[in-house]
């Protein structure tokens, strides 16, 4: 006779005492919300760049985890006391290094709900809401960007991952046997010399090899030269190589230059290359009607990436890959073991088939919250304003004879330098960063050290920009002494 | 003369009106916390498997995003009304399909803070806390697992990504020229026929090719046969192939079998293969002292994966890759453009160098919260209890002559079947799932349909297990009529 389940003395779950009781969750949840609300109000009071030294946090933490559980009070206290001083505040309105980002209120609330539901959107069945809301939200975003309805969208963590996905799909189209046989053809890939490093990384990870990544020359405004692209393709063809992938960047990381997508699309079509548009940062600006032209020609792309966690108010991470060849993407990635096989229904997409990771967070929820809360108007207004301020900032730089703007600033990144030595520029940047007033980053262009100033945080005001500029000017005055 | 920044009429930020005011954030934040607290209490009231039909949510949502922003009330209302019915509740105590997971209170609170800080841990400088807390938390976890101190840990999103990282590192060791030249050698890779599909996917993405993935036979308990592995390696060597990577799984997805890691390590050493241990689910059980033997031999591995988002109370996603060859991992992935170049300090790790994605969420925070809140005792007690219950469930199945257990259940997954046709088993599973009482999944083993029952949620009680078993029995009784 089978044991009678309900008769066992183990009915009281030993694990039960371990659950955080809902009332305790509520109490600490309010504390966390209060902390975040205050943080959003007071974020300006923090130095943007953390002032900690390497190893300082590590040394302050115990080398062993506790054997017995600890009260939440203690943990939140340590968060405040130990973690916070080691935070570089990406959500600070004066974070101007890299592309500035905003984690907005609705995005943060969505993240809490995502964590509570904890769904894994690998299969339609395992997470219908994740699967379908992803299609809805990406359909909305596609309209904001003015992309054709035929573009299928899928969310991954970062643009780096999506670059790898795009190149893998391109290879699958160029060499369907690679999946089975392994990478074997001498495939060559084309990016501008200012393309993001993730394209090169994707190529080397996939087995294409760095030697087969062609970094195409740019013109005086740092845009890929179509004639140089054509020459490189022709040279490779003559050498027996197989050109298969070209990336046009809309808003390069180093300088936000915009490659001539239509001309590159012409060449991609002529030579049968997969055209990828990397609009991780700059592509988002196309939601502003007067900047829609940024994506001119992108309707001819095979794939395009935009990152809502950059300039579209979502917390990190969420990167969108659109492709008009979902069948090819699926062909490159789909591997379905029996335990993940589901009944076929043409409307029940299994999004795991379109990418590398099997586990998929419910990232669409934050994009949906953000798009609804801000609406097109406010999101577009923010981007428009940031671009205006970048132009104004560039004008201030130009108007100060001690400085020069070193590249056009079509979006919200201004690259400039102090008319002095590289060492002086580095000292200038380091001094501003160390002051806590702002966080700037650098690049080396044409052999010279330049300072990058990017605008992109929702809380940034024109006063912030003006004060950072004053801090830069004052620091420069100190350099001359 | 430069324009005077402060004199501009634009001082009032146009973007400012778009920020969610802190008081509004606080109000809706409390609502979200209340909702989650209630959800955690009432999650049992939901059907585990969503009852929505394919396309139902999609059809209920407007095809266009709003032009003007919408109030948060409306968004949260739609979340409740439209999204929730399309949720399959992974955080439900009767979610027994796939490996059950728990998003715990401290993990959810950490996610809200991660979103608010919004740091990108690509560089030490860009996020010292993210970089150093990752090392601390992974050091703690390494101790819980009994792994050697020499193992370096890094966090990525999922075990699928980490499998790709491990294989890429192995290739870099076997063929350092591949990075530059591209994948060219006839590399062969070895996994058990029950290994996770992500190994195969990783191999095909990297350009190794599915034809070069050897699925090694298992013994009667579904563990990789070392003699078969040796024979496969020898055959490949004789055929001029280059064996380079072997994966031993600790807790296979289909049946939680544990491959003989020490014997596989012997072969890996003899033939110079990179040894990877996939402990995404099962490896975590090694935090229980009496299950530490699960990782016997893993100290000889070159890499090992465990997923805190599976059996260690963290919300999805967080997967840990340990390796004793961080230099090789770095060699396989590091690409540093000038704008990401930082001053060298041996203690200032740039974690972007150890993987594909440049963007890195502050995932360590949730692991740190969870390890501290539960402590080793409570986390281990939960896992021990789940294993006990799985054994008890297996005994109930064995004691009912209508059923059979089809594989040993060393961890918390029981694979069983109704002694009838595959069709009856499928009907049984579908009926239980449709009832909302539980969510079970299936597999096909030795040509027969089997039902998978996994235990792993923190809120699960022994009563849950007993009631699900009763529901299965009652449903089976209906099958016979």
Layout of strands and helices, then pairs:
The structure is a homodimer.
Chain A: H1 22-42, H2 56-60, H3 72-83, H4 105-117, H5 128-145, E1 152-156, H6 159-174, H7 178-181, E2 187-192, H8 197-206, E3 213-216, H9 226-238, E4 242-249, H10 261-271, E5 274-278, E6 303-306, H11 308-311, E7 319-323, H12 326-333, H13 364-399, E8 403-405, E9 413-418, H14 422-435, E10 441-445, E11 448-454, H15 462-480
Parallel strand pairs in A: 2-3, 2-4, 4-5, 5-6
Antiparallel strand pairs in A: 1-7, 6-7, 8-9, 9-11, 10-11
Describe this structure in words.
- Two copies of one chain form a homodimer.
- In chain A, strand 4, helix 10 and strand 5 (274-278) form a beta-alpha-beta unit.
- The first copy, chain A, is an alpha/beta fold.
- Residues 1-14 of chain A have low confidence and may be disordered.
- In chain A, helix 5 runs parallel beside helix 13 and helix 13 (364-399) crosses helix 15.
- Chain A has a domain at 109-370: Aspartate Aminotransferase, domain 2, CATH 3.40.640.10.
- The radius of gyration of chain A is 25 Å and the shape is globular.
- Chain A has a seven-stranded mixed sheet with strand order 1-7-6-5-4-2-3, sandwiched between helices. A four-stranded antiparallel sheet of chain A has the order 8-9-11-10.
- Helix content of chain A is 42%, strand content 12%.
- At the A-B interface, helix 1, helix 2, helix 3, helix 4 and helix 5 of A face helix 1, helix 2, helix 3, helix 4 and helix 5 of B.
């Amino acid at each position: 006779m089978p044991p009678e389940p309900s008769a066992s003395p183990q009915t009281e779950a030993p694990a039960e005492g371990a659950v955080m009781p809902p009332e305790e969750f509520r109490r600490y949840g309010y504390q966390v919300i209060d902390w975040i609300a205050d943080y959003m109000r007071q974020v300006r009071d923090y130095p943007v760049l953390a002032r900690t030294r390497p190893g300082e946090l590590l040394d302050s933490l115990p080398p062993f985890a506790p054997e017995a559980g600890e009260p939440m009070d203690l943990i939140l206290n340590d968060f405040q006391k130990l973690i916070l001083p080691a935070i570089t505040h990406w959500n600070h309105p004066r974070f101007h290094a890299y592309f500035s980002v905003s984690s907005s209120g609705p995005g943060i609330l969505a993240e809490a709900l995502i964590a509570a539901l904890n769904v894994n959107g690998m299969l339609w069945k395992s997470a219908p809401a994740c699967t379908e809301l992803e299609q809805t939200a990406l359909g909305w975003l596609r309209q904001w960007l003015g992309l054709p309805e035929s573009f299928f969208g899928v969310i991954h963590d970062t643009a780096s991952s999506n670059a790898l996905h795009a190149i893998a799909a391109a290879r699958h189209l160029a060499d369907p046997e690679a999946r089975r046989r392994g990478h074997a053809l001498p495939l060559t890939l084309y990016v501008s010399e200012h393309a993001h490093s993730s394209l090169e990384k994707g190529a080397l990870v996939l087995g294409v090899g760095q030697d087969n990544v062609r970094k195409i020359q740019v013109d005086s405004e740092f845009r890929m030269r179509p004639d140089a692209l054509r020459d490189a393709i022709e040279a490779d063809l003559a050498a027996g190589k197989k050109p298969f992938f070209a990336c046009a960047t809309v808003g390069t990381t180093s300088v936000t230059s915009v490659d001539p997508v239509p001309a590159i699309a012409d060449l991609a079509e002529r030579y049968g290359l997969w055209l990828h548009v990397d609009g991780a940062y700059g592509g988002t600006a196309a939601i502003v009607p007067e900047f829609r032209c940024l994506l001119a020609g992108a309707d001819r792309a095979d794939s395009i990436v935009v990152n809502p966690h950059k300039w579209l108010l979502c917390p990190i991470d969420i990167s969108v890959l659109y492709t008009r060849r979902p069948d090819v993407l699926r062909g490159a990635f789909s591997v379905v073991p029996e335990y993940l096989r589901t009944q076929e229904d043409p409307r029940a997409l299994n999004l795991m088939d379109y990418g590398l990771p099997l586990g998929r967070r419910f990232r669409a929820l934050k994009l949906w919250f953000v798009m609804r809360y801000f609406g097109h108007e406010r999101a577009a207004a923010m981007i428009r304003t940031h671009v205006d301020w970048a132009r104004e900032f560039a004008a201030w730089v130009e108007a100060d004879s001690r400085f020069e703007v070193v590249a056009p600033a079509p979006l919200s990144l201004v690259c400039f330098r102090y008319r002095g030595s590289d060492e002086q520029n580095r000292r200038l940047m380091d001094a501003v960063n160390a002051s806590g007033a702002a966080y700037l980053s650098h690049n080396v262009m044409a052999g010279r050290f330049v300072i990058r100033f990017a605008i992109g945080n929702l809380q940034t005001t024109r006063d912030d920009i003006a004060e950072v500029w004053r801090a830069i000017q004052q620091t420069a005055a100190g350099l001359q002494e």
